[in-house]
Q: What sequence folds into this?
């Protein structure tokens, strides 16, 4: 009897278990992973020293077909573009697209929430895909299967002053590190606003009769309540400095019909009824210092063909430039020599005007496989570097008394 009862209990338990399994459901099933690949990067506003400081929080970042995303009316017509992806920059300055369909000729475009100038996009992992290239303000990419494309980074200068509704404004900066980019604001720079027709007239101008604005502590200047018309903003003086060198003057977003002006201290600006504000007219100056030739020696540590870490202790020699761009010397000795410091920086000072060649010698312990050598801003008349990766040609003139962006990159 006891065995019969045990068998009955076991049979009921098995029937109950089988019934529960038959009718069970899966709860909290994981959603399917996105198809396609991943594209990501960062977006930051630059600080006074030109370093990435503040993230472009909530900036809109788009990824889509190059033909559509690059168009001038993109934001007005974006709802009609197939396959367009949108994401936003987080509080850490990062953005990411997941589920990107592999294809060529795609473009990343960003729209910061704040007023800005000098927006620049850089693909730090440029890998040679078809039609992949760097473009100012846009990053063009090509995605292949199983590719994770990161390092698509944006930077810009953020406006610290809100422009008036009807105004012409901008900034005045000093280039402190000879990279041709404004680094620190210039205070008390006088800017004069002149009617364009009067500016091009052969008659002499009394600049004291035109409206003036003086740059503030952040370098910002502004002319308010300006009627529609064609103007030029002309830099006159900077009481903060004595003598200065003009590096560049530019309307960062030139309007249709604005003339190009070769004079460095003048920017052409047009105001219209439909576009009554122009806020990104930037002047960049430097203070003259002793004539010099300088640059950096860097190591490519991750095989991306870019300098990542400084190389200390490399010897560099300066020679006059002879035929075919090679060094020349009557006695076989260099004009000067120096060694790169802990930051990879080297400098030759008090160099007279002339045509020169920097000759990289290196050191026994440093990386010796040459990746690239380049004068980042070659002057007129400077030949391209010869086949030898150790030479960089440099010219010094009355107008260009310093050349500070000569970069050598090596790998192990």
A:
């Amino acid at each position: 009897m006891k065995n019969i009862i045990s068998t009955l209990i076991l049979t009921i338990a098995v029937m109950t278990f089988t019934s529960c399994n038959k009718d069970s459901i899966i709860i909290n099933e994981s959603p399917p992973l996105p198809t396609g690949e991943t594209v990501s990067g960062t977006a930051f506003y630059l600080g006074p020293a030109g370093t990435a400081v503040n993230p472009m929080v909530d900036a809109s970042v788009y990824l889509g077909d190059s033909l559509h995303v690059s168009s001038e009316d993109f934001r007005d017509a974006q709802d009609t573009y197939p396959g367009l992806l949108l994401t936003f920059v987080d509080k850490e300055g990062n953005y990411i697209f997941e589920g990107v369909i592999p294809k060529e000729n795609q473009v990343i475009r960003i729209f910061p929430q704040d007023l800005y100038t000098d927006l620049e996009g850089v693909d730090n992992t440029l890998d040679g895909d078809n039609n992949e290239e760097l473009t100012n303000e846009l990053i063009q990419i090509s995605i292949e299967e199983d590719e994770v494309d990161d390092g698509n980074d944006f930077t810009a200068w953020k406006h610290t002053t809100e422009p008036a509704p009807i105004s012409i404004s901008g900034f005045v900066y000093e280039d402190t590190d000879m990279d041709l980019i404004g680094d620190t604001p210039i205070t008390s720079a006088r800017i004069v606003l002149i009617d364009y027709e009067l500016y091009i007239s052969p008659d002499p101008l009394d600049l004291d009769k035109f409206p003036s604005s003086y740059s503030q502590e952040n370098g910002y200047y502004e002319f308010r309540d300006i009627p529609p018309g064609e103007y030029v903003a002309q830099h006159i003086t900077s009481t903060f400095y004595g003598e200065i060198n003009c590096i560049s003057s530019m309307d960062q977003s030139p309007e249709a019909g604005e003339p190009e002006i070769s004079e460095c201290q003048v920017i052409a600006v047009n105001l219209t009824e439909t576009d009554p504000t122009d806020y990104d007219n930037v002047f960049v100056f430097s203070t003259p210092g002793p004539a010099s030739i300088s640059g950096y020696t860097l190591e490519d540590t991750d095989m991306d063909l870019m300098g990542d870490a400084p190389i200390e202790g490399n010897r560099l020699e300066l020679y006059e430039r002879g035929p075919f761009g090679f060094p020349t010397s009557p006695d076989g000795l260099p004009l000067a020599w120096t060694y790169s410091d802990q930051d990879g920086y080297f400098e030759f000072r008090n160099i007279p005007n002339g045509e020169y060649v920097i000759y990289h010698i290196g050191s026994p312990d440093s990386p010796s496989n040459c990746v690239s050598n380049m004068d980042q801003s070659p002057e007129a008349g400077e030949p391209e570097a010869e086949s030898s990766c150790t030479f960089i040609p440099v010219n010094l003139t009355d107008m260009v008394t310093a050349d500070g962006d000569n970069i050598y990159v090596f790998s192990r």
